[in-house]
Amino acid sequence: MTLSEQIQKDITTAMKARDEQRLSCLRMVKTALKNREIEKMAPLDEKEARQVLSTLIKQRKDSVEQFTKGGRQEMADKEAAEIKLIEAYMPKAAGEEDIVAGVKAVIAEMGAPSMKDMGTVMKNVMARFSAGGMRVEGKQVSEVVKRELTPK
Questions:
Q1: Which terminus has fewer CB within 10 Å in the chain: N or C?
Q2: Which residues, at least 6 apart from 129, have a Cβ–Cβ distance to it below 8 Å?
């Protein structure tokens, strides 16, 4: 079952259960996927669909941060709940130790890269995690790469 089909099935389930919050979030996800499909003028493959979901998660995280700064905790909680719902459709996120291990492995493969090679290291690390089917945030990977490339 594709991601879009799974979301459609879950929309039906949410309608039957009268779960308004879940239904609203799932409809928003379905709309985002459909809009991307229209932009591309072709059906999305699983990787592209996951990229759309990843973008939605990132937007929600930014919103949570802004709502928290603005003192709108109820809105921040709503966005956080949407993040959890969307993440259910994503592959498992890599933990901190997985990221550190991946970065160290790439640095070892490349020899002894310096801070000037950070872009190349980042690209290789992101490709490694993508190929392994794990989800990572670029911001997190960037911090680990900086930490590992900085001379001690």
A1: C
A2: 94, 99, 102, 135, 136, 141
